[in-house]
Structures are given as structure tokens and as C-alpha cells.
């Protein structure tokens, strides 16, 4: 899967949401206020997030904010020993795992199929938060 393929899939499923590109990273929002994205595609390291080694050529990371139960079902309570630079591997987010975010670097088509329901869940959670305001 390419970054563009993933971005297009998420755009196609936004259902009233929108996306914003900033510094070559893409942020997907459910509501109109840009308060907090439900998914992101990032393309480079920064001072607070470099564990994924995104500065490698052609490397990007898809990040998705899932629910607590989903996160724990995938990784348990305290994930340990994660190689945050591994390609095509669903993993806890290197910085936002405590907020129940998951990540995958350069997912294959097969891996992306397993991530699609996580994206749908993240969007639903964002919609519920927006509705609760």
C-alpha cells in the first residue's frame, strides 16, 4: 500500500469529516474543529518522535486512535520489546500508546485489511466524542 492509497481510503470513509496536510503529514478529523485527529499519516521524525526512523527513504507511518479494549486485546496492558522501526507490523504507537494509539509503518495490503476496522473504530470514537460536546 502506498501513502496515497491509505489516505484515499480514509478520505473515502470520512463521512462528513475532513483532513488537513501540514508539513507533509496528513491528519484526519471527524468534526470541523481540528481538535484531535482520529488517524494520521506521518512521513518524518521529529524531536519528540523518532523511534520509527521515518527519515528512511519512502517510509511513512499510519497512526490510529482506537479504544482501550481494542488496544489491550491487541497488545495487552504494558506492551514491551516493540521494534518501533519494523515495517508492516501493527504495533503500539511509540509516543501515544498510553492514549491507545496504534501504528504501522508501510503496511502491506494484507496488513492494511486488518487496520481498516481499526480506522472505522477510531472514526466512530471521534464521532461519539464530537457528539458528546
TrEMBL record:
Top-level taxon: Bacteria
Pfam families: DUF6194
Location of the DUF6194 domain: 1-131
InterPro entries: DUF6194
Protein name as it appears in the record: DUF6194 domain-containing protein
